[in-house]
Amino acid sequence: MNNDLIDLLWEGLLETLYMVFWSSLFALAMGVVLGVTLVVTDKGGILEAPKLNKVISTVINGVRSLPLIILIVLLLPLSRLIVGTTLGPTAAIVSLSIGAAPFLGRIIESALKEVSAGKIEAAKAVGATPFTIIFRVLIPEAMPALVRGITIGIIGITEFTAVAGAIGAGGLGSLAIRFGYQRFREDVLIATVLLIILLVQIIQWSGDLLVKSINKKRYKFE
Length: 222
Hints:
mainly alpha, MetI-like fold
C-alpha cells in the first residue's frame, strides 16, 4: 500500500470518527428529549398534551422527509453562524446532528413505548413523580431496545458523513469522491468503502455486545 494512500485514509478516518462522535452525541441529546417528550405527552401519557405532541411529531416528520443533502444545504447558514464556516468536519456536525436527531427521536419513542403499561401504573400507584417514572421506570426498562436503536442511529450518522463529504465536509466520503472518483484512484475508492464497512461493523458489534451485557445483568438480578 502506497504511503500517500495510508496518509489519506488515516486523515479521512480521523475526520469521519470526529464527525460521528460529536454528531452522535449532540443528536442523541436532542433525540432523547424529543423521544421522551413524544411518549409522555401522547394520549394517555404521564404528562398528556396532545397539541404539543402533534406539533413535535409534525416537525419531526417534516425534517425527516427532507433528503439529507438538501437539509445540509439548508443548514449551511446555521453552521456558519455557530462555527464560522460552512466547510470541514466541524461545520458538518451541525447539519448531521440536526438531521439525525428526529430519526433518533422516533427510535427512542418506539423503544420507550415497549415498556409495559402495568409497570408505569404501578409507579403511579406508589406516588412516583413524572420525573421518577421517566428516569427510574421508562428508560431503565427500555434500555436494551434503546441501545439497539441508538446503534442503528450511529450507523446512520456514519453513512450520513459520506453524503456530507460531497459538499466539503471532509472524511472518508469526501476522500472517496475527490480522489477515488474524480481522480480515478480505484485504490482510494475501494479502501474508503472497506473502511466505512469496517467502521459500521465495529459499531454494530459494540452495540450488540452492550445489549447482551445489559440483558445478562438484568436476568442475574431478576
